[in-house]
Amino acid sequence: MLDAKFIRENLELVKKSLASRNDATSLDRFLAVDIERRSLLKEADALKQELNRVSKEIGKLKAEGKDLSEKSAGMKEVSQKIKDLDRQITLKDEELTNILLFIPNIPDVSVPLGKCSDDNKEVRQWGAIPKFDFTPLSHVDLGEKLGIIDFERGVKLSGARFVLYKGLGARLERALINFMLDLHTKEHGYEEMLPPFLVNRASMTGTGQLPKFEQELFWCERDDLFLIPTAEVPVTNIHRDEILTEDKLPLKYTAYTPCFRREAGSYGQDTKGLIRLHQFNKVELVKFSHPENSFDELEKLTNNAEEVLKRLELPYRVIALCTGDMGFGSAKTYDIEVWVPSQNKYREISSCSNFTDFQARRANIKFRAKDGKLKYVHTLNGSGLAIGRTVVAILENYQNANGTVRIPKALQSYMGGVETIG
RNA sequence: GGAGAGGUGGCCGAGUGGUCGAAGGCGGCUGCCUGCUAAGCAGUUGUACCCUCCAAAGGGGUACCCCGGGUUCAAAUCCCGGCCUCUCCGCCA
Questions:
Q1: Are A395 and A139 in contact (CB under 8 A)?
Q2: Collapsing DSSP states into helix, strand and coil, what is residue A240?
Q3: What φ, ψ does residue A257 adopt, rounded to 5°?
Q4: Judging by beta carbons within 10 Å of its beta carbon (0-12, 13-18, 19+), is residue A257 exposed, middle or buried?
Q5: What rounded mean pLDDT belongs to chain A?
Q6: Which of A35, A102, A133, A315 has its CA 20 to 30 Å from the CA of residue A211?
Q7: Which residues touch strand B (CB under 7 A)?
Q8: Exposure of A345 by Cβ count < 10 A (0-12 exposed, 13-18 middle, 19+ buried)?
């Protein structure tokens, strides 16, 4: 959420921001309501001042045992008028908030301008793309042939876009979770969290999923709870409505959770395999940063996520998303894409973003600065990494001509010493 | 799900109609004092919004004692509804 006063005072900047994101939201209504609200507020405040003044006099007179009827005459009408005005102001407030909740964050100046994913900029590449002297199989074929991923039974149990891992497939998934958590906690200094997988509306609003993206969430109607689409939601909301200690920033948390996404609107995309599921596993990285160095922290967080791929020796590249392709709340985003041989291209495996104060304002997460003032922290998060897509990358990049799959060295101890599947 | 208790400032905690933005304590900050540390003494210390102003500071005002209504000239305080937390019982991995 942007600050109302900031929009008022930086109108052109905000308009440019919206345009650069291909966001058609108009600010006209916001400006009109903002003016109406302040006008009503002024009127109501003046009447309240009058009412408070008279009420105090009455209090004094009563203490002296004097007659009050003269003073209190007419005050009932004033009181009523104030109530009417307050009601109108509340309506304006709600309307303003509703508008603000739908305005995206302002992209950082370093973000490339662009309309869509074609305009994203590659930042760096790592690792050599593997050469096969046979036609590499897709992870779908490999998974089925090796008997470690059961797509049909996933559908039987829950429907399309659900999957059943079996045997060493399940083991591989679990090994990756542990490997990543260990790396981030032991070597990168993150504290491990295991949050609830169901959260309330306040949490979803705090990180920006609500109100705009309700259609993309699984919702438990009886209890008005939502299945988390990413650990970002519960982990960022850990400090909702809190004041953090400046000296302790940045706070760095990592969490494994399953993620649940309705994938509304993605019909026909990645219908087969592990790439796009309603439920998938992910290890997430979250930071609460001082505003002064949040962009440095983004670089570090991205490096932390990349390190997973380096250890697993999987080729990847990092791209900077352009303004038109960036998520709603992000001021800057790097995507990490891993090489997928069967598709002969890089596919997203992590998305690392700096939300600046966008989420902090929604979720009310502050710190007390040295000058004694309260300021919003900056929040960041990134996948470190998506587990299912890492399985895709391992199966496909580490496959042999005979259909077996080697296990990356770094992972073998987590697999109970297994070096090859199949 | 049933019964009871409770939600007050950064934290703890008092306050049952007006002089309460709110006692007291802790913590924070400033000064004094002691050779250092500790202790002690004095002072100070909420947030948001509006107006003025605009570079900042300052000044004026309003709101906020979980949330939303109501009573009243006046509500932290009285009434109604809701949410949440805790304790006990039930159920349960």
A1: yes
A2: coil
A3: -150, 155
A4: buried
A5: 93
A6: A35
A7: A 3-5, 38, 41-42, 44-46, 48-49, 51-56, 58-59, 62-63, 68, 72, 75-76, 79, 83, 87, 90, 243, 372-374
A8: exposed
